[in-house]
Specification:
By secondary structure, the protein is mainly β. Helices cover 3% and strands 42% of the residues. The strands form five sheets. Strands 2, 3, 5, 7, 9, 11, 14, 17, 20, 21, 23, 24 and 26 form a 13-stranded parallel sheet that branches. A ten-stranded parallel sheet has the order 1-4-6-8-10-13-16-19-22-25, with no helix packed on it. Strand 34 and strand 35 form a beta hairpin. The longest helix has 8 residues. The chain is globular. The two termini are 37 Å apart.
Amino acid sequence: SLNNQLFPLGMRNNVDIVGAERESTILDGEDKYSLVHARISPDDLHNVLANFTVKNLTITRGHKGSHRYGALFYRSVNNFTLENVDFTNSGSPRERRGFNFITFEACDNFTLRNICIYNNDITTDGWGEALFTAHRMESGQTMYAENIRFRDNYSPDGPSRIYIKGTGRPPDSYHATFVNLEITDNAIYPHGHWGYGALFYIDAKVRLVNTTVVGNRVYNVDNPAAISMGNYYSPELSVYNSIFYDNGGDYQMYFSRHPSHGGGPDVINVSHSLIENGRDGITEIYDVGSIVNWGEGNIDDDPLFAGKYNEFGDKNRYPYMLSEDSPARGAGTLDIPDFEFPEYDIAGNPRIVDGKIDMGAYQYYKPTTSIEDEEREGVTERLRDGEFNLRNFPNPVTYLHSDRQAGQTRSSTGTTIAFEAPESGEVVIEIYNVKGQFVRRVFDAYITKGEYNVFWDGKDERGRYVATGFYMYNLHFNDELVATGRATFIK
Protein backbone atom coordinates (compact mmCIF):
# COMPACT_ATOMS: atom_id res chain seq x y z
CA SER A 1 0.00 0.00 0.00
CA LEU A 2 2.97 2.36 0.48
CA ASN A 3 4.34 2.01 -3.05
CA ASN A 4 1.33 0.77 -5.05
CA GLN A 5 2.59 -2.75 -5.58
CA LEU A 6 0.14 -5.27 -7.02
CA PHE A 7 0.11 -8.89 -5.83
CA PRO A 8 0.38 -11.71 -6.52
CA LEU A 9 3.46 -11.65 -8.72
CA GLY A 10 2.87 -14.01 -11.64
CA MET A 11 5.83 -16.02 -12.90
CA ARG A 12 6.79 -16.33 -16.58
CA ASN A 13 8.91 -18.82 -18.47
CA ASN A 14 12.66 -18.15 -18.23
CA VAL A 15 12.17 -14.98 -16.12
CA ASP A 16 13.70 -14.86 -12.62
CA ILE A 17 12.79 -12.79 -9.58
CA VAL A 18 16.04 -11.99 -7.75
CA GLY A 19 16.25 -9.70 -4.75
CA ALA A 20 19.37 -7.99 -3.45
CA GLU A 21 19.20 -9.97 -0.19
CA ARG A 22 16.62 -11.41 2.18
CA GLU A 23 17.05 -8.62 4.69
CA SER A 24 16.27 -5.78 2.29
CA THR A 25 14.01 -7.22 -0.44
CA ILE A 26 10.67 -7.80 1.28
CA LEU A 27 7.33 -8.75 -0.24
CA ASP A 28 4.71 -7.73 2.33
CA GLY A 29 1.17 -9.01 1.79
CA GLU A 30 -0.20 -6.96 4.71
CA ASP A 31 -2.22 -10.01 5.84
CA LYS A 32 -4.57 -9.75 2.87
CA TYR A 33 -2.65 -10.64 -0.29
CA SER A 34 -1.14 -13.79 -1.72
CA LEU A 35 2.32 -12.86 -2.98
CA VAL A 36 3.78 -15.21 -5.62
CA HIS A 37 1.82 -17.38 -8.06
CA ALA A 38 2.78 -19.73 -10.88
CA ARG A 39 -0.29 -21.54 -12.13
CA ILE A 40 -1.16 -23.63 -15.16
CA SER A 41 -4.29 -25.74 -15.39
CA PRO A 42 -3.38 -29.47 -15.37
CA ASP A 43 -5.75 -29.88 -18.34
CA ASP A 44 -3.99 -27.26 -20.46
CA LEU A 45 -1.53 -29.31 -22.49
CA HIS A 46 -0.55 -26.44 -24.82
CA ASN A 47 1.08 -24.21 -22.20
CA VAL A 48 4.17 -24.87 -20.10
CA LEU A 49 5.40 -22.79 -17.18
CA ALA A 50 9.01 -23.63 -16.38
CA ASN A 51 12.65 -22.60 -16.03
CA PHE A 52 12.71 -19.77 -13.51
CA THR A 53 14.18 -18.89 -10.12
CA VAL A 54 12.90 -16.89 -7.15
CA LYS A 55 15.67 -15.99 -4.69
CA ASN A 56 17.14 -13.55 -2.17
CA LEU A 57 14.00 -12.14 -0.57
CA THR A 58 11.58 -12.33 2.34
CA ILE A 59 7.88 -13.10 1.97
CA THR A 60 5.90 -11.84 4.95
CA ARG A 61 2.28 -11.41 6.04
CA GLY A 62 1.02 -13.28 3.01
CA HIS A 63 -2.37 -14.94 2.51
CA LYS A 64 -5.58 -14.49 0.62
CA GLY A 65 -9.02 -15.30 1.98
CA SER A 66 -9.78 -18.01 -0.54
CA HIS A 67 -9.21 -21.72 -1.04
CA ARG A 68 -5.53 -22.74 -1.09
CA TYR A 69 -4.07 -19.35 -1.94
CA GLY A 70 -1.45 -18.70 0.72
CA ALA A 71 1.80 -16.77 0.50
CA LEU A 72 3.05 -18.83 -2.46
CA PHE A 73 1.08 -21.06 -4.82
CA TYR A 74 2.60 -23.07 -7.72
CA ARG A 75 0.50 -25.50 -9.78
CA SER A 76 1.62 -27.66 -12.71
CA VAL A 77 5.01 -25.95 -12.97
CA ASN A 78 8.32 -27.63 -13.84
CA ASN A 79 12.06 -27.01 -13.56
CA PHE A 80 12.20 -24.12 -11.10
CA THR A 81 14.23 -23.12 -8.05
CA LEU A 82 13.32 -21.31 -4.85
CA GLU A 83 16.48 -20.17 -3.07
CA ASN A 84 17.45 -17.93 -0.13
CA VAL A 85 13.87 -17.09 0.82
CA ASP A 86 12.32 -16.47 4.25
CA PHE A 87 8.61 -16.96 4.92
CA THR A 88 7.63 -15.26 8.15
CA ASN A 89 4.97 -13.47 10.22
CA SER A 90 2.08 -14.75 8.16
CA GLY A 91 -1.34 -15.84 9.32
CA SER A 92 -4.27 -17.44 7.58
CA PRO A 93 -7.97 -16.71 7.21
CA ARG A 94 -9.92 -18.46 9.95
CA GLU A 95 -13.07 -18.55 7.81
CA ARG A 96 -11.56 -20.65 5.01
CA ARG A 97 -11.10 -24.41 4.79
CA GLY A 98 -8.37 -26.18 2.84
CA PHE A 99 -5.93 -23.30 3.28
CA ASN A 100 -2.28 -24.03 2.41
CA PHE A 101 0.38 -21.45 3.22
CA ILE A 102 3.05 -22.63 0.75
CA THR A 103 1.76 -24.88 -2.02
CA PHE A 104 3.43 -26.89 -4.79
CA GLU A 105 0.70 -28.79 -6.61
CA ALA A 106 1.46 -31.24 -9.44
CA CYS A 107 4.95 -29.73 -9.90
CA ASP A 108 7.98 -31.60 -11.19
CA ASN A 109 11.77 -31.36 -10.97
CA PHE A 110 12.03 -28.41 -8.60
CA THR A 111 14.61 -27.39 -6.02
CA LEU A 112 14.26 -25.59 -2.70
CA ARG A 113 17.50 -24.34 -1.13
CA ASN A 114 18.20 -22.20 1.95
CA ILE A 115 14.57 -21.68 2.93
CA CYS A 116 13.46 -20.59 6.39
CA ILE A 117 9.78 -20.80 7.40
CA TYR A 118 9.36 -19.33 10.86
CA ASN A 119 7.07 -17.40 13.20
CA ASN A 120 3.91 -18.07 11.21
CA ASP A 121 0.49 -18.38 12.84
CA ILE A 122 -1.70 -20.63 10.69
CA THR A 123 -5.14 -20.18 12.28
CA THR A 124 -7.95 -22.09 10.56
CA ASP A 125 -11.12 -23.94 11.38
CA GLY A 126 -11.12 -26.56 8.62
CA TRP A 127 -9.45 -29.79 7.64
CA GLY A 128 -6.53 -30.19 5.29
CA GLU A 129 -4.68 -26.99 6.07
CA ALA A 130 -0.90 -27.08 5.78
CA LEU A 131 2.06 -24.86 6.50
CA PHE A 132 3.84 -26.44 3.53
CA THR A 133 2.29 -28.80 1.00
CA ALA A 134 3.61 -30.65 -2.04
CA HIS A 135 0.67 -32.69 -3.23
CA ARG A 136 -1.10 -34.21 -6.22
CA MET A 137 2.34 -35.15 -7.48
CA GLU A 138 2.35 -37.64 -10.34
CA SER A 139 4.37 -40.84 -10.62
CA GLY A 140 8.02 -40.14 -11.36
CA GLN A 141 7.89 -36.45 -10.46
CA THR A 142 10.61 -35.19 -8.08
CA MET A 143 11.55 -32.45 -5.65
CA TYR A 144 14.84 -31.73 -3.86
CA ALA A 145 15.08 -29.58 -0.73
CA GLU A 146 18.37 -28.55 0.92
CA ASN A 147 18.98 -26.43 4.04
CA ILE A 148 15.34 -26.00 5.05
CA ARG A 149 14.21 -24.72 8.46
CA PHE A 150 10.67 -24.97 9.84
CA ARG A 151 10.77 -23.40 13.29
CA ASP A 152 8.59 -21.60 15.81
CA ASN A 153 5.39 -21.92 13.79
CA TYR A 154 2.05 -22.10 15.55
CA SER A 155 -1.34 -23.52 14.62
CA PRO A 156 -3.92 -23.03 17.37
CA ASP A 157 -6.90 -24.51 15.52
CA GLY A 158 -6.13 -26.82 12.62
CA PRO A 159 -3.72 -29.53 11.40
CA SER A 160 -1.23 -27.15 9.71
CA ARG A 161 1.35 -29.74 8.79
CA ILE A 162 4.16 -30.32 6.35
CA TYR A 163 2.30 -32.38 3.79
CA ILE A 164 3.95 -34.50 1.08
CA LYS A 165 1.45 -36.45 -0.99
CA GLY A 166 1.71 -38.23 -4.33
CA THR A 167 -0.75 -39.97 -6.61
CA GLY A 168 1.26 -42.95 -7.87
CA ARG A 169 2.13 -46.27 -6.31
CA PRO A 170 5.67 -47.66 -5.93
CA PRO A 171 8.01 -48.07 -7.65
CA ASP A 172 6.92 -45.04 -9.68
CA SER A 173 5.58 -42.92 -6.84
CA TYR A 174 6.45 -39.27 -6.30
CA HIS A 175 10.01 -38.81 -4.97
CA ALA A 176 11.05 -36.08 -2.49
CA THR A 177 14.50 -35.66 -0.92
CA PHE A 178 15.21 -33.41 2.05
CA VAL A 179 18.79 -32.86 3.23
CA ASN A 180 19.88 -30.62 6.12
CA LEU A 181 16.26 -30.25 7.23
CA GLU A 182 15.36 -28.73 10.60
CA ILE A 183 11.85 -28.97 12.09
CA THR A 184 11.98 -27.51 15.58
CA ASP A 185 9.79 -25.85 18.23
CA ASN A 186 6.55 -25.89 16.24
CA ALA A 187 3.14 -26.31 17.90
CA ILE A 188 -0.07 -27.54 16.27
CA TYR A 189 -3.55 -28.39 17.56
CA PRO A 190 -5.20 -30.83 15.14
CA HIS A 191 -8.78 -32.03 15.32
CA GLY A 192 -8.20 -35.02 17.56
CA HIS A 193 -7.59 -37.72 14.93
CA TRP A 194 -4.63 -40.10 14.78
CA GLY A 195 -4.05 -39.44 11.09
CA TYR A 196 -3.70 -35.74 11.78
CA GLY A 197 -1.73 -36.10 14.99
CA ALA A 198 1.67 -35.52 13.42
CA LEU A 199 3.60 -32.53 12.19
CA PHE A 200 4.92 -34.18 9.00
CA TYR A 201 2.47 -36.21 6.89
CA ILE A 202 3.91 -38.43 4.15
CA ASP A 203 2.08 -40.30 1.39
CA ALA A 204 4.86 -40.59 -1.21
CA LYS A 205 8.43 -41.84 -1.49
CA VAL A 206 10.44 -39.51 0.76
CA ARG A 207 14.09 -39.51 1.81
CA LEU A 208 15.29 -37.56 4.87
CA VAL A 209 19.06 -37.07 5.08
CA ASN A 210 20.62 -35.24 8.05
CA THR A 211 17.34 -34.07 9.51
CA THR A 212 16.76 -32.61 12.99
CA VAL A 213 13.20 -32.93 14.32
CA VAL A 214 13.20 -31.70 17.92
CA GLY A 215 11.07 -29.81 20.42
CA ASN A 216 7.80 -29.93 18.49
CA ARG A 217 4.41 -30.36 20.15
CA VAL A 218 1.20 -31.85 18.76
CA TYR A 219 -1.76 -31.33 21.04
CA ASN A 220 -5.33 -32.66 21.37
CA VAL A 221 -4.50 -36.21 20.21
CA ASP A 222 -3.52 -39.43 21.92
CA ASN A 223 0.07 -40.47 21.36
CA PRO A 224 1.20 -37.69 19.00
CA ALA A 225 4.22 -38.14 16.75
CA ALA A 226 6.51 -36.15 14.49
CA ILE A 227 5.74 -38.14 11.31
CA SER A 228 2.55 -39.82 10.11
CA MET A 229 2.86 -42.33 7.28
CA GLY A 230 0.39 -43.35 4.64
CA ASN A 231 -3.14 -43.05 3.45
CA TYR A 232 -3.63 -44.44 -0.05
CA TYR A 233 -0.39 -44.57 -2.02
CA SER A 234 1.87 -47.00 -0.16
CA PRO A 235 4.50 -44.48 1.00
CA GLU A 236 8.10 -45.30 1.70
CA LEU A 237 10.22 -43.20 4.08
CA SER A 238 14.01 -43.59 4.27
CA VAL A 239 15.78 -41.84 7.16
CA TYR A 240 19.57 -41.39 7.29
CA ASN A 241 21.84 -39.49 9.70
CA SER A 242 18.85 -37.89 11.44
CA ILE A 243 17.73 -36.96 14.96
CA PHE A 244 14.16 -37.34 16.28
CA TYR A 245 13.99 -36.30 19.91
CA ASP A 246 11.78 -34.56 22.48
CA ASN A 247 8.65 -34.26 20.39
CA GLY A 248 6.22 -34.65 23.27
CA GLY A 249 5.15 -38.29 22.98
CA ASP A 250 6.25 -41.91 23.08
CA TYR A 251 6.37 -42.15 19.30
CA GLN A 252 8.43 -40.31 16.71
CA MET A 253 6.77 -41.92 13.66
CA TYR A 254 3.65 -43.97 13.02
CA PHE A 255 1.80 -45.69 10.20
CA SER A 256 -1.74 -44.35 9.89
CA ARG A 257 -3.17 -46.05 6.80
CA HIS A 258 -6.67 -47.45 7.40
CA PRO A 259 -7.38 -51.04 6.20
CA SER A 260 -10.20 -49.76 3.98
CA HIS A 261 -7.74 -47.70 1.91
CA GLY A 262 -6.07 -50.76 0.39
CA GLY A 263 -2.58 -50.67 -1.06
CA GLY A 264 0.49 -51.29 1.03
CA PRO A 265 2.71 -52.27 2.47
CA ASP A 266 3.90 -48.93 3.84
CA VAL A 267 7.63 -48.89 4.65
CA ILE A 268 9.99 -46.97 6.95
CA ASN A 269 13.76 -47.50 6.60
CA VAL A 270 16.01 -46.08 9.34
CA SER A 271 19.80 -46.19 9.58
CA HIS A 272 22.53 -44.26 11.42
CA SER A 273 19.97 -42.09 13.21
CA LEU A 274 19.18 -41.06 16.77
CA ILE A 275 15.55 -41.98 17.47
CA GLU A 276 14.10 -41.37 20.92
CA ASN A 277 12.84 -44.70 22.32
CA GLY A 278 14.66 -46.50 19.50
CA ARG A 279 12.68 -49.01 17.47
CA ASP A 280 9.81 -48.63 19.96
CA GLY A 281 9.49 -45.01 18.80
CA ILE A 282 7.83 -46.27 15.60
CA THR A 283 4.33 -47.78 15.77
CA GLU A 284 1.34 -48.76 13.65
CA ILE A 285 -2.23 -47.61 14.35
CA TYR A 286 -3.93 -50.37 12.38
CA ASP A 287 -2.59 -53.85 11.80
CA VAL A 288 -2.15 -53.68 8.01
CA GLY A 289 1.30 -55.22 7.70
CA SER A 290 3.47 -52.11 7.57
CA ILE A 291 7.23 -52.66 7.54
CA VAL A 292 10.05 -51.10 9.56
CA ASN A 293 13.57 -51.85 8.35
CA TRP A 294 15.71 -50.98 11.39
CA GLY A 295 19.20 -50.69 9.94
CA GLU A 296 22.72 -50.28 11.30
CA GLY A 297 24.10 -47.44 13.37
CA ASN A 298 20.88 -46.33 15.10
CA ILE A 299 21.07 -45.06 18.67
CA ASP A 300 18.70 -43.97 21.44
CA ASP A 301 20.45 -41.39 23.57
CA ASP A 302 20.39 -37.74 24.59
CA PRO A 303 21.82 -35.87 21.57
CA LEU A 304 23.40 -33.22 23.84
CA PHE A 305 22.64 -30.13 21.81
CA ALA A 306 24.61 -26.93 22.23
CA GLY A 307 21.52 -25.29 23.79
CA LYS A 308 19.72 -22.00 23.44
CA TYR A 309 22.45 -20.03 25.19
CA ASN A 310 26.18 -20.15 24.65
CA GLU A 311 28.95 -20.07 27.21
CA PHE A 312 28.74 -16.27 27.39
CA GLY A 313 25.00 -16.25 28.09
CA ASP A 314 24.10 -15.04 24.61
CA LYS A 315 21.31 -16.72 22.65
CA ASN A 316 22.49 -19.27 20.12
CA ARG A 317 21.10 -18.73 16.65
CA TYR A 318 21.34 -22.49 16.08
CA PRO A 319 20.47 -24.09 19.46
CA TYR A 320 20.22 -27.58 17.96
CA MET A 321 23.81 -27.75 16.84
CA LEU A 322 25.66 -30.60 18.53
CA SER A 323 27.88 -30.06 21.53
CA GLU A 324 31.41 -31.41 21.57
CA ASP A 325 30.37 -34.46 23.65
CA SER A 326 27.31 -35.39 21.60
CA PRO A 327 26.96 -39.11 20.77
CA ALA A 328 25.68 -38.04 17.33
CA ARG A 329 29.08 -36.62 16.36
CA GLY A 330 30.68 -38.64 13.57
CA ALA A 331 27.94 -41.26 13.89
CA GLY A 332 26.37 -40.76 10.46
CA THR A 333 27.04 -42.66 7.26
CA LEU A 334 28.41 -41.37 3.96
CA ASP A 335 27.13 -44.47 2.15
CA ILE A 336 23.73 -43.40 0.80
CA PRO A 337 22.68 -44.79 -2.59
CA ASP A 338 22.40 -42.30 -5.47
CA PHE A 339 23.09 -39.31 -3.25
CA GLU A 340 25.73 -36.55 -3.17
CA PHE A 341 26.15 -34.56 0.05
CA PRO A 342 26.09 -30.76 -0.12
CA GLU A 343 29.27 -28.93 0.75
CA TYR A 344 27.84 -27.14 3.80
CA ASP A 345 25.37 -27.80 6.58
CA ILE A 346 22.40 -25.62 7.46
CA ALA A 347 24.59 -23.16 9.40
CA GLY A 348 27.17 -22.75 6.66
CA ASN A 349 29.77 -25.02 8.24
CA PRO A 350 31.51 -27.83 6.30
CA ARG A 351 29.13 -30.79 6.00
CA ILE A 352 31.87 -33.43 6.15
CA VAL A 353 34.79 -32.96 8.56
CA ASP A 354 37.84 -35.25 8.58
CA GLY A 355 35.97 -37.76 6.44
CA LYS A 356 33.09 -38.07 8.93
CA ILE A 357 29.54 -36.80 9.06
CA ASP A 358 27.37 -36.11 12.09
CA MET A 359 23.72 -36.91 12.63
CA GLY A 360 21.27 -34.05 12.26
CA ALA A 361 21.12 -30.87 10.21
CA TYR A 362 24.30 -29.43 11.78
CA GLN A 363 27.91 -30.55 11.61
CA TYR A 364 30.00 -29.91 14.69
CA TYR A 365 32.78 -27.66 13.53
CA LYS A 366 35.55 -26.03 15.51
CA PRO A 367 38.33 -24.33 13.57
CA THR A 368 41.68 -25.93 14.32
CA THR A 369 43.68 -22.82 13.42
CA SER A 370 43.64 -19.31 14.75
CA ILE A 371 41.87 -16.53 12.89
CA GLU A 372 45.24 -15.11 11.93
CA ASP A 373 46.26 -18.46 10.41
CA GLU A 374 42.96 -18.74 8.56
CA GLU A 375 43.41 -15.22 7.21
CA ARG A 376 46.86 -16.02 5.89
CA GLU A 377 45.83 -19.38 4.42
CA GLY A 378 42.70 -17.96 2.78
CA VAL A 379 44.50 -15.05 1.15
CA THR A 380 44.96 -15.41 -2.59
CA GLU A 381 47.35 -13.63 -4.91
CA ARG A 382 44.67 -11.06 -5.63
CA LEU A 383 44.42 -10.11 -1.95
CA ARG A 384 48.19 -9.88 -1.60
CA ASP A 385 48.25 -7.68 -4.66
CA GLY A 386 45.61 -5.46 -3.01
CA GLU A 387 43.28 -5.46 -6.00
CA PHE A 388 40.08 -5.47 -3.94
CA ASN A 389 41.22 -3.06 -1.21
CA LEU A 390 38.73 -4.56 1.26
CA ARG A 391 38.23 -2.61 4.50
CA ASN A 392 35.52 -1.41 6.87
CA PHE A 393 34.84 1.80 8.79
CA PRO A 394 34.31 2.65 11.56
CA ASN A 395 36.31 -0.05 13.26
CA PRO A 396 35.81 -0.82 16.12
CA VAL A 397 32.04 -0.36 16.11
CA THR A 398 30.33 0.76 19.32
CA TYR A 399 26.61 0.85 20.12
CA LEU A 400 24.35 1.32 23.14
CA HIS A 401 21.61 -0.80 24.66
CA SER A 402 18.39 0.95 25.65
CA ASP A 403 18.54 2.15 29.25
CA ARG A 404 15.41 3.87 30.53
CA GLN A 405 17.01 5.09 33.75
CA ALA A 406 19.86 6.70 31.89
CA GLY A 407 17.51 8.04 29.25
CA GLN A 408 19.37 6.26 26.50
CA THR A 409 17.87 4.72 23.38
CA ARG A 410 19.46 1.90 21.48
CA SER A 411 21.61 3.12 18.64
CA SER A 412 24.24 1.68 16.39
CA THR A 413 26.67 3.26 14.01
CA GLY A 414 27.08 -0.05 12.17
CA THR A 415 29.99 -0.38 9.80
CA THR A 416 30.52 0.14 6.08
CA ILE A 417 32.41 -2.56 4.21
CA ALA A 418 34.14 -1.01 1.22
CA PHE A 419 35.86 -2.73 -1.68
CA GLU A 420 36.96 -2.19 -5.26
CA ALA A 421 35.99 -4.58 -8.05
CA PRO A 422 38.78 -4.81 -10.66
CA GLU A 423 36.35 -6.26 -13.23
CA SER A 424 32.75 -7.40 -13.60
CA GLY A 425 31.70 -10.49 -11.69
CA GLU A 426 29.62 -12.09 -8.93
CA VAL A 427 30.45 -10.74 -5.45
CA VAL A 428 29.31 -12.30 -2.17
CA ILE A 429 30.21 -10.89 1.25
CA GLU A 430 29.48 -13.02 4.33
CA ILE A 431 30.04 -12.44 8.04
CA TYR A 432 31.39 -15.11 10.42
CA ASN A 433 32.02 -15.02 14.16
CA VAL A 434 35.28 -15.88 15.88
CA LYS A 435 34.27 -19.58 16.02
CA GLY A 436 33.88 -19.68 12.28
CA GLN A 437 30.06 -19.86 12.46
CA PHE A 438 28.00 -18.15 9.80
CA VAL A 439 26.34 -14.88 10.93
CA ARG A 440 24.90 -13.17 7.87
CA ARG A 441 25.25 -12.63 4.14
CA VAL A 442 25.27 -8.88 3.55
CA PHE A 443 25.88 -8.74 -0.20
CA ASP A 444 25.21 -11.04 -3.16
CA ALA A 445 25.11 -9.49 -6.62
CA TYR A 446 26.68 -9.38 -10.04
CA ILE A 447 28.51 -6.05 -10.34
CA THR A 448 30.63 -4.13 -12.80
CA LYS A 449 34.10 -2.70 -12.26
CA GLY A 450 34.18 0.07 -9.68
CA GLU A 451 34.10 1.03 -5.99
CA TYR A 452 31.33 -0.23 -3.68
CA ASN A 453 30.14 0.35 -0.12
CA VAL A 454 28.04 -2.22 1.78
CA PHE A 455 26.50 -1.26 5.12
CA TRP A 456 26.24 -3.86 7.89
CA ASP A 457 24.11 -2.79 10.85
CA GLY A 458 25.61 -5.34 13.23
CA LYS A 459 22.65 -7.72 13.11
CA ASP A 460 22.60 -11.42 12.33
CA GLU A 461 20.27 -13.10 9.82
CA ARG A 462 17.41 -13.07 12.35
CA GLY A 463 17.68 -9.35 13.00
CA ARG A 464 19.44 -9.60 16.38
CA TYR A 465 22.46 -7.49 17.31
CA VAL A 466 25.66 -9.50 17.49
CA ALA A 467 27.55 -9.91 20.73
CA THR A 468 30.77 -8.12 21.59
CA GLY A 469 33.69 -9.63 19.73
CA PHE A 470 35.57 -10.04 16.46
CA TYR A 471 33.77 -10.78 13.20
CA MET A 472 35.32 -11.84 9.93
CA TYR A 473 33.90 -10.71 6.61
CA ASN A 474 34.84 -12.73 3.55
CA LEU A 475 34.60 -11.45 -0.01
CA HIS A 476 34.07 -14.07 -2.71
CA PHE A 477 34.53 -13.09 -6.35
CA ASN A 478 33.15 -15.57 -8.88
CA ASP A 479 33.06 -18.26 -6.15
CA GLU A 480 36.69 -17.62 -5.15
CA LEU A 481 37.66 -16.29 -1.71
CA VAL A 482 39.74 -13.24 -2.60
CA ALA A 483 39.76 -11.03 0.50
CA THR A 484 39.08 -11.19 4.24
CA GLY A 485 38.65 -8.43 6.79
CA ARG A 486 37.89 -8.18 10.49
CA ALA A 487 35.46 -5.92 12.36
CA THR A 488 35.26 -5.45 16.11
CA PHE A 489 31.93 -4.80 17.86
CA ILE A 490 31.86 -3.35 21.38
CA LYS A 491 28.72 -2.89 23.48
